[in-house]
Amino acid sequence: MMYLISVLGVAGAVIGFGRRDDLGGGFWVYQAAMMLLIVTGVVIARLTVVVDDRTVTTSFGWGWPNREIALADVAAVSHVRNSWWYGWGLRRVARGWMYNNSGRDAIELTLRSGKVFRVGTDEPTELLTAINRAR
After folding, report:
1. Residue 97 belongs to a domain with what CATH number?
2. End-to-end CA distance of the chain
3. Beta strands 89-93 and 66-70, pairing class
4. Do 93 and 118 fall into the same domain?
């Protein structure tokens, strides 16, 4: 939620700035870029994680983008703390991918292939427990 408030606040301020007349024909390009920023912010403001007996499924916003990982492919699970420069959203990190929309805590799934997948969460203990029980 903090991410959504930040994005909307910045986008609102930038859109207000963009109302200046000296932008000329670039005004509409500028406004379109800001609307894209707002839509992106709304989509990644909510991250849903579902753990069942076979998979860990993560999805942003209205179900996209999403990722499903079979528990049979998971070699290890651990609670990690992301560096501040990892930020929020969907991004590449060392040896794999990360989905995050709040804070710096994450659960790292180390796959049998050696790649990792990090799921940012504000409830790391509960998510770690759920995944370990399912495994």
Report:
1. 2.30.29.30
2. 30
3. unpaired
4. yes
